[in-house]
Description:
The complex is a heterodimer of chains A (64) and B (454). By secondary structure, chain A is mainly alpha-helical. Chain A is 64% helix and 0% strand. The termini of chain A are far apart. In chain B, helix 8 (121-144) packs parallel to helix 20. Chain B starts with a helix and ends with a helix. The interface between A and B is large, with 46 and 70 residues.
Amino acid sequence: MDKQTQEHLESFRNLARKIKSYHEAIGLLHWDLRTGAPKKAFRLVRRRWVCCPPKHSSCKPRLT
Amino acid sequence: MLSTEAFKLQTSADMKTYLDALTTPAVSEQLEDIDRRLVEDCKKEYDRSQSVPPEKVQAYTVLTAKSETAWEDAKHNSDFAGFSPYLTDIVKLKQEFIDYWGVKDTRYDTLLDMYEPDLTVEKVDAVFARLKARLVPLQEKINASENKPNTEFLNQLFDTKQQEKFSLFILEQMGYDFEAGRLDESVHPFATGLNPGDVRITTHYLQDDVASAVFSSLHEGGHALYEQNIDDSLAGTLLAEGTSMGIHESQSRLWENMIGRSLPFWTRYYKDLQQHFPQLSEVELEDFYRAINRVESSLIRIEADELTYNLHIIIRYEIEKMLFNDGLEVKDLPETWNAKYKEYLGIMPTNDGDGVLQDVHWSGGDFGYFASYSLGNMYAAQILHTLRKEMPEFDTLIAEGNLIPIKEWLTDKIYRYGRSRTPSELIVAITGEELNPDYLADYLEAKYAEIYKL
């Protein structure tokens, strides 16, 4: 693998890690809204919610 | 805001540059397996996200947010007409999205693939047909059986603090790591895996239904074990989560039903349950076991038993397929829904709140999701078959309360891989064959033949 491709790979890994960090933060907010936050909060926040792709369980909990 | 930022990163020019560089055949073959899988995953997501104009994504986001609120009211008031305009718009936008994403063999295939990679209508039709052919007659035999379990003793009041204590106890027994998670209470139980070191679950405690808390905890605990035991090498990457909805469901259902509703499980834990709830002290173990495995046609999917649950899913799958492939109109959904319930379960809802409006999924645009629940049951039965072969002492271990070797086997075969293996790669590696619905049918027929003395 040449030097530029190696740099691309490292940058790609870093970008993917950053996206994962966002997902974790979103998941944490979602958990708080579903468990600890006042009930009205979830309804209000949901209006501004941008859905993540369904596969990312860290930012969109599975439905039962 | 956070999710908008995440979306921007996923579709950024930088991401395009890296994906272009890393997906050429010459470079791809030099990548480590984990990097290659991560690149493929991000490429698929990038292509899908890029293909839809941002204004359409925005319109969809606003619509589904309003729709979920409208659905809550409509369900409460059994008012399908009040929800119908939202659902009509969602289906219309989804149809447009399918065109942007690219139609696979059929339009509905594109939606199925979002929840279960490479799943197609052709595959699901085949496995559901085989399943239906065995489950419908089984259910009819059960309905005709004179050996129905008595469930009256479950209709008592059970202290909710004791329910919480027992739930915590069972989770500990399963090997749920409380250093890497916590149990909370919510209206609808769920699991959130932030990373393998923080996998939180919730359950609910209903005073008049002790079984609900116990089995919800086992179910969510199953999801959590999966994510807590993903290999450290994947931590912090987008591969540190379950590989698909179907495989994830297989793990929750294996713990909830195939272990948690088994006789060996209660042989070990029934005495503990009785200690928490003295009102069960006069109830025999076998009567309790039969009661928690009662089969009965019911209208509500999330309250359905292990057998009829699959028929609830097949109904939803067939209706979604009609919506996206066969031109079924939203206005005709209640009538179609009721007819299918009559055909498969022999019952019909008297109002739409207990019928077509009962699930939240469609209000959020989650079409293609339902099939993954039954896939989970099928994967679980197939995995259980191999687990029993490789671990002949399986029942004995459960009856002794030694659940950790089972968790370790599942970790070795499934959990540790996270998303680094596809569902198909996993199931073939574990069981030696692709998804086969006969294992679930075999499991259910054997279980209920004994309980109902068929």
